[in-house]
Amino acid sequence: MTLSAKLLETLKTKREALIAGGGADKLAARHAKGLLGARERLAALFQPETFQEIGLHVRHAGEHFGIAEKELPADAVIVGTGLVGGRTVAAISQDFMVSAGSLGLMHARKIVKAMELALKLGVPMVAFKDSGGARIQEGVAALAGYGEVFYHNVLLSGVVPQIAVIAGPCAGGASYSPALMDFIIMIRRSAHMFITGPEVIRAVTGRTTSMDEVGSAEMHSTVSGNVHFVAENEAHAIEITHRLLSYLPPNNAEDPPHHPTESLDLSNDEGMNAVIPDDSSEALDVKAVIHRLVDNGEFLEVHAGFAGNMVVGFGRLGGLVVGIVANQPMEKAGAIDIDASDKAARFIRTCNAFNIPLITLVDVPGFLPGFEQERAGIIRHGAKLLFAYASATVPKLTVVLRKAYGGAYVAMCSQPMGADFVYAWPTAEIAVMGAEGAVNILYSKELKGAENARARAKELAAEYRAEFASPYMSASKGFITDVIEPGMTRATLALSLRKILNKRELRPAKKHGNIPL
Ligand code: HXC
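^ thats the input. predicted complex w/ hexanoyl-coenzyme A below
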């Protein structure tokens, strides 16, 4: 055998051993449970043959408890770059089959290397999390590793999109890395995420609970709001990742992947009228409106299971990527509560960071009144929504569909809050409060003495609605750009968007604003 043949043989043997990771038996056991291996996840994410690994030969730095002699292939994390839809993406995938994907210092530094590369290249970062947490044998060095990862999550934040896929356990402080990223996708059943699990909770508080109650995808997507998307299985998680990436720019200095259509469909969508209930007290389904507005009815709803009274997500209008924020009257009458404020504020900030124009659909009776809401801080949570809209410098288009009352009207990207154009349907009611409430206050004396108080109140409410709360009143004061036929909404928005896509809005220089938390 020639020298070069020997060297090639050594290279091959080393590579094969490292790529085998935890071994064929462990991989087969995972397959039997419907789970993929760390490398298989990356293979599914990227176009075939496009993955280039970084740091396959990196060795762990553990010294204690007999770990020094142990081989942990690739130090339990696969790192590199690949192509998704022809665009470069950096990714890491923790390998649960090697020491439970536990994170030691070198493991963390591999992750950080991918993040630094994502920053330098200006490309999105995807992280598959599947780990037993800090590698116990590495002690404080493992904790330092987490610190380095968190620090870089924050450096990347607002510069390149970061997507976490929670594909297995994600416990303790480890869950803060995904929490610092832009989107969390969590796989149902196979993944759990928590700061302290059931055993610690029982030991410290005495309360008995289960892994599902405090850490399941179901809980995080509907109660805590930590998770943006629930995937039914591994393939679904990849599909959601691909869809998300298709709306996001590679970095904050570039536009999202707009594919402007050559001509715009400016026809009247008569079908929109059918979506609006005849009775103004009957709730309108805003998702039906959204589906009529976006190209091919394709809408990627974000945070779908959480705070259903606010709908947020991505779509395209005439081929241009947009973020949509909408009140949903089908839930809590569309009133804005704490969770809805947080959900919308976060989405608006994500869109603004990544140059995605915002479309706001308004049908809101107000901020949700309530003892719990006040005590839980609706003031500071609601203020996040105001802060997010007012600081967003991307193109902002608003359509008032029906109700737009009080502070909630102001908050939902009204013109004084910085909307570029505000359209209203003829069904819009814009006022400090609803007609009945306003009449009770304005005419309390008259109504008290009146014989037919109820009929008179109804009459006055109708007058108030028709004259005072009408969109023409707002339009006459210049707060509404135009009153439009519902069927012309899509055409109006698509045309306006083309015109304001390249708008520039300058703000005073500052380190950062102080967003209410
Ligand atoms: C080192 C670990 C490990 C860890 C598991 N292993 N977790 N090694 N550090 N954190 C090893 C096991 O010893 C075992 O090694 C192999 O990985 C597989 O683990 P099993 O327990 O056999 O697997 P399984 O039954 O599937 O259970 C997986 C698990 C469990 C649920 C993740 O291992 C577990 O509870 N691990 C500890 C989790 C934890 O408390 N981590 C610290 C969280 S706090 P061998 O050699 O036998 O194959 C934290 C702080 C972060 O992370 C702070 C950031 C600021």
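The chain has 21 helices and 17 strands.
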